[in-house]
Amino acid sequence: DPAGTMASRLKMNPYSARKIIEQTRRFTASELSDFISKTADMEVMLKSASSRSAIPALTLFVTRIVVKIRR
Q: What is the value of pTM for the model shown?
């Protein structure tokens, strides 16, 4: 059971692990890699820029993810 293994290794709730696995199936490996990379870039931006300049970029990033999930 992949969800059980993930929950055990990450010390998380098995239900949450199942939901994460369901969500990741909606994305290609390339898309997931791109989201991880953009998340890291976004973290750097949020820590180094004023929040006022980072908010539009963060909003666009989250919107793109939500649109993809809802497809």
A: 0.56
